[in-house]
Structure formats: C-alpha cells, structure tokens
What does this fold into?
Amino acid sequence: MVQEYVLAATPEEAAELIAGDPEAVVMGGGTTLMPKATLGELNGRRVIGLARAGLDYVERNGATRIGAMTPLRALGEIGDVPGLAEAARSIGSWPLRVSATVGGNLLAPPPYGDLAPVLLALDAEIRVAGSGGERTAPLAEAIEAGPAGPGELLLEVGIPAAAGSVSYRRCARRELNAPPIVTVAVRVWADGDEIVEARVAIGAVGPRPLRVGGAEAALSGSTGDAGAIDAAVAAGAAAVEAVDDAVASAWYRRRMTELHLRRAIEAAVAAERG
Amino acid sequence: MAANARAISFELNGESVAALAKPLETLQSVLREQLGMTGTKAGCRQGGCGSCTVHVDGEPTLSCLVPVEHVADREVTTIEGLGSAEEPSPLQAAFHEGFATQCGFCSPGMIAVASALLERNPDPTPEEIGEALAGNVCRCTGIAPIIAAVEDAAARMREGEEVRT
It folds into this structure.
C-alpha cells in the first residue's frame, strides 16, 4: 500500500513538500502513476499530489500561460493557439484527457509526450519551482535535462503570441487512441515569398522530443522550394535517434519521420502563403 | 484498515456517501467494493479499456485512474444513476433493443461516454460518436451496433424534447 497521499493546497505548499522530500513520488492527474499504484509498484512510497494545488488554469494576455495541472481536455478547447488544441485532442481518449495534464504529458517518458513538439514549435517556456526559488527556461533547453528534476515542481507552460503558420502531424497505427510512431510540428513565418524563420520539432520517435536546428536553417531564407524542403527533411531524419519498440521498428519510424516531416513542412508553407 | 485511511465524502447518483479509503485507492475500487455499485466494471485497471468510465461533475472519467481523494465533495454518476431496468434511459433502451450489448461488460462505460456526448451534442454524426468512444473497447459487437444505438438514442431524445415542448 502507498504509505501516504498528501494533497498540496497551493503551488507554494506543493513546491515546499517536493523540495523537502526529493524521494517522494509527485503525482498530477494520475494517468501514468495510478496504474502503478494499483499494481503495488508504489507500495511504501509517499506520494505528493498536485490535484488541489491551484495549478489548473489557462490565462490569456496575448501570450498564453497554462498551469501544469490543466487537463488536456481544457487545452483541446483553446482554439486560437495554432496547433495546440489539435495536438491535445490527438492524445488518448476523451475520458483520459479529463485526467491527463499538460505537466504530466511533458514529464512522461516516450511514447507519451505528444504536446512537446507543438510547444517547441511555438517557442514555449516553462516555469519551475525548486529549492533555489523559481526559474524559467525555454522548453527546448529544459527537455535536454528533463523539465523538472528531483525536488523540483513544474508550475507552468508559457506560450508567446505566435507569428506564422503551424502544421501538426501525428502518425499512429490507428487514427484514434493509439500511441504515436512519430509526431511532427512545424511553424514557418514568411515575408512575401521568403520564409523568414522556421521551427521544426519532432517527438515520439526517439528518447526525447527535439528541435531540429538543421531543418530550421534549411528553410529559413528559402522560398519553401523543393530543394529547401528536401534539405530540411534530410536534416530531420539525420537528427532523430529512432527506437525499436512494440509500436514500430526504428526503420519504420525513420521512414514515417521523413514522410510526415515533409507533409508538415508543405502544409505549414502552404498555410502561410494563404 | 490502515492508520492512513481517510474518510472521503462525495455525492453518488444524487445522494451523499462516505467511504474509508486507503491512500490512492481508486474511485473504481470504492464504488465496487464499498458502495455496491458493481455496474462500474473493473477491466484492465490501467486506463486502457474504458469499462470503468463514470461521470465526475458531468465529465466522463476513468474511475480506475482517479484516486477517490480527488472526488471529495464532487458529484459522481454511475450507470446505476443514469437509469434502471424498470426505467431505462433512452441510451440504455437503445443499447438493449439494438443488440449493442452482448456480454455487457463494456456497456456501462460506453453509455457513460455516450450520455456525456449527447448532453453536449444532441445530434452527433457516426464519426463524432466513434471519436467520443475511441477509448472504450468492445470485443463482442464489432462496434457498429453501438454507434447505431447511440444515434437511435439521440433521435429518441430529440423526439422526446419535441413532445415535451
């Protein structure tokens, strides 16, 4: 049996509890940890819960600030942050999205984590509380080390008002409620025919989601012509460390990465041209 | 019962109830083992099959993934709260008459999600029904009779509305 389940009442209390007990298990919506608890894998552990910690909110002010405990169900209702609602709604099933949270999705190991590519493409940053106080970091940097380490609490995801057009693609063995083989998010913004800047992010294919600088560089300054897209796709395929698992082989993941990256770039460029 | 057990009160099918729960005991376990609501099924207990779906404050929720602590002071509705054998809801009647229930194990979860869908969308397309029910697994019917039953229930409910108004 779980030793104790402590529900924090405020973000500050949650941060204090977590900093004071780095050995404790931190639980958000419970979609990945409750099955473990039911199987007895958390027996003897102290679990700190965030469900009542006041981290379930979406604030709009040009930029968008999303509390780490906001359910994916609520994200699916945000219509005007390009790609975000679509990515949220592609995850699991409706009842699962009622419990699953933004923070949990960012911290869960692959094949979970479908939000990360679109958040990377939108230049999201995260706010984290730790023993040394609060810090903010670009998500792209934070993902390298893990968004929140032992003793730390992921508080919030921030998305700046985004220029440009986004395309999100998710490849899975079934259209609905299936783990992803690869997820791709591409954002481009153009000035006339020229793509001024691009974001290319890929998830689910390897050990962690990543931004592909080489693909972004290939698109930036181009007109989105076939040569630039070929170069971007090649950079994306080279950057991923595709894994073999029960969902797909590494070979298939690489092929699907190339295919869906190409389609996402083409769709984003077409949308930006209007 | 362990020293860490806690009394949790919530509203179940319109009535106040209380349960003594172990830390991280699931809502599903409390409903079935303590409160006698065995209409809520225990299938995979991993959030993968949908058979344990109930409403929490009107949202379809996987009761095997929710610690009962999370529903304190909230409203929970199980299949027993949606209708009875004597007075079935339109969805229950349509499932029964349309052979959308065979072994019946998935039906409470299917009906929990479908009723939440029809509250929000009284006239869903088969695609919208399929999308809503994507997390609910059925090994008997082949799903098509279930989607037809939800359409049938939606039609009955729209007709009922017209008769009432």
